[in-house]
Design brief:
This protein folds into 2 domains: 132 residues, no CATH class; 245 residues, Metallo-dependent phosphatases (Purple Acid Phosphatase, chain A, domain 2). It has 9 helices and 12 strands. Helix 3 crosses helix 4. It is elongated. Helix content is 40%, strand content 15%. The chain has a 6-stranded mixed beta sheet. The chain has a 6-stranded mixed beta sheet with strand order 6-7-8-9-11-10, with no helix packed on it. It is of the alpha/beta class and 384 residues long.
């Protein structure tokens, strides 16, 4: 993207953010002034404007302490603000429909607007509060996949995680539990399908502790990873060093034949934020052509962070493991991802000749530390 286009994009996003905040601010003030009649519009505007402006600070280069505070505030505000917009819009549409159907008088009585305002606040607090709690709960999902054609000599247990987003709010606090729960599954192989980081290595508060915890992951064949769209940028070399120090093997448009039993292929994401330095994703045909010298009877497992163009693998892969979608993370995002992606979550196989596909909703969160309509999950897969 050119610099002028980037500047225009930033200005456009700021404009939308300002307009949306004017809308939310006016709706909030309309109810608050009934509760606190002495609340001046100018005082409220300055207070709300300060909150809205503080969110923008999380996107600016700041000293570590200030950046952490801005990230913490910005992440929580993002979730609350999202639900304020959602429910105020739904409320305004409901009132408009009620007026057209003559179920609500026109002009709308102040008492009706206040009750609707209270309902919007209750829904916002309820959804954001539940989402904050639910994001701390990690579920375990299990699949059994029967491979046909290229098969295994004995069952293989994989554990799949994606979207750790190390550096995001709460990401490090849940890492100890994630490692312990994976190890209790006693896997043959642990795989990470991208977005291990949250754009910036320096956002990790205690990288030494995080690396030490990841080194405790225990599997017969070790831990392998592919990279996601948030695993690039200026600190990409530090990310790679962190993964190496954590005993995690990263496959970047590469493959590994493991114990002579199966082939594991790791892709680079097609749209990395900030890029992967000199590395780039290959055409899939070229990547698969590089497997020509490998026993064609060995099962092929692909780690590809973003589940798009799944047909590109045709019958040359047996299992595709992805993440990225978060299953929308917070309602109604799960409805949107269902429309965007061929497989936004769970297990799928288009036909007997196509690869098996498993997309996880991820074990961490991006942006707001909330989950509504989706789970933080660890996936256990038994291949036969």
């Amino acid at each position: 993207m050119s610099k002028p286009a980037m500047i225009l994009g930033i200005l456009g996003a700021l404009f939308i953010y300002v307009v949306a905040n004017v809308y939310v601010g006016r709706r909030l003030y309309g109810g608050l002034v009934r509760l606190f009649p002495s609340l001046g519009g100018r005082v409220f505007a300055w207070a709300y404007g300060a909150v809205a402006a503080a969110f923008v600070l999380s996107y600016l280069p700041l000293p570590d302490a200030l950046r952490y505070g801005a990230d913490l505030f910005g992440s929580w505000w993002m979730g609350i603000w999202f639900y304020l917009i959602l429910w105020f819009v739904v409320a305004d549409i409901g009132i408009a429909i009620g007026r057209l159907a003559r179920l609500i008088r026109s002009p709308v009585p102040a008492a009706v607007r206040f009750r609707v305002w209270l309902l919007v606040l209750a829904l916002t607090v309820g959804f954001a509060g539940y989402g904050a709690w639910h994001a701390t709960q990690i579920t375990e999902t299990r699949y059994e996949v029967e491979l046909t054609g290229r098969g295994l000599d004995r069952p293989l247990k994989l554990v799949l995680i994606s979207d750790l987003h190390l550096g995001a709010v709460r990401s490090e606090s849940r890492l100890e539990e994630i490692v312990a729960r994976i190890n209790r599954m006693e896997p043959d192989l642990i795989v990470m399908a991208g977005d291990i980081f949250n754009d910036d290595y320096h956002a990790i508060r205690d990288p030494g502790r995080a690396s030490a915890l990841l080194r405790e992951l225990d599997a017969t064949y070790g831990v392998y990873a592919s990279l996601g769209n948030h695993d690039g940028g200026p600190t990409f070399p530090l990310m790679l060093q962190f993964l190496a120090d954590s005993d995690i093997t990263v496959l970047m448009e590469e493959h590994a034949v493991i114990d002579g039993r199966f082939v594991l292929i790791g892709r680079l994401d097609p749209s990395p934020i900030g890029g992967y330095g000199d590395l780039a994703r290959q055409p899939t045909e070229a990547l698969l052509a590089g497997l020509a010298g490998i026993d064609p009877e060995l099962p092929r497992i692909v780690l590809d962070h973003t589940p798009v163009r799944l047909s590109q693998y045709r019958d040359e892969a047996d299992l595709i493991l992805s993440g990225h979608t978060h299953k929308g993370q917070i309602f109604p995002g799960n409805l949107v991802t269902r429309l965007i992606y061929e497989v936004d979550y769970g297990y799928d196989q288009k036909d007997p000749a196509s690869p098996h596909v498993i997309v996880t909703s991820g074990v961490g969160t991006w942006g707001m530390p909330m989950r509504v309509g989706s789970d933080c999950e660890i996936v256990e897969i038994v291949l036969r």
